[in-house]
Amino acid sequence: MIMKKSYKQLSLKDRDRITIEERPLSAETRSRFGHWEGDSIVSRKSASALNTLVERKSRLVLITLLKRKTAQETSTAVIEKLGNLPFTLLSLLLRQTF
Question: The whole model's pTM is what?
Answer without folding.
Answer: 0.72
